[in-house]
Hints:
Blueprint: E1 7-11, H1 23-32, E2 36-43, E3 49-51, H2 72-76, H3 89-99, E4 102-107, H4 112-129, E5 135-139, H5 142-151, E6 156-159, H6 170-179, E7 184-188, H7 194-203, E8 206-210, H8 215-222, E9 228-231, H9 234-243
Parallel strand pairs: 1-2, 1-9, 2-4, 4-5, 5-6, 6-7, 7-8
Antiparallel strand pairs: 2-3
Helix pairs in contact: 1-3, 4-5, 6-7
Amino acid sequence: MNRHSIVRCAHRGASAQNPENTLLGFRRAIEQGVDALELDIRRTADHELVVIHDSTLERTTNGHGNVANHSFQEIRQLDAGQGEKVPHLGEIIQLAREAQVRLCMEVKGATEVEELAIAEDIIRTLEAANFLGQAILTSFSSPALLRAKAIQPEVSTMLDPSPQDGSLSPRQICAQTLRAGANCLSCDFRFLTPEIAAECQLTGLALWPWDPDDPNEIRQTLMLGVQGVMTNRPDVLNTVLHDFTF
């Protein structure tokens, strides 16, 4: 049970300890204690939604080539690590429903056209599963989030402003997020500053940085007054939260 107001989100599952974006990793994160699971969604050649980060198969599976060029059944035959399969989105929705956790679903795509199609397919899938209220749609693509909002205005969305290299001012970061119709923004914790956190507070945007895994990184992130933390080490986050004074 989370006794703090911070949303504990497992980045691709407990991905520092288990294969990322797999049922094994998501179950491990749930066991460790999280409020939400972050996952990446792409579309197969036969328009099935699968949970995988890269546009290609080589890094996270024993397959080769583009995800979009393979059927769901072809991708399903691959090893995603430790004997795990690439999950279908429907499997993760069912897991989240049973565990009573939210899903933070990142729209991936090789092109803007693909991102728009995936965003629409995700919304339709959430509607059919009656899971819209437990999901947050996130992307680096403003058009993808706007498309989702056009279909379902009440869906929660989160933008990763671009570029994430420290070149944008806090005002530019928040303005880009607001133009995308998002109520939350995310960013690499390494580029998060007190000024960005303050601007988010002024503009009413929730802030969920990603990838602080070390205890000191997590403490420094929490000290900025963030509303959520996406980490590859939910167990470490919970240890820090246990002793952290807000």
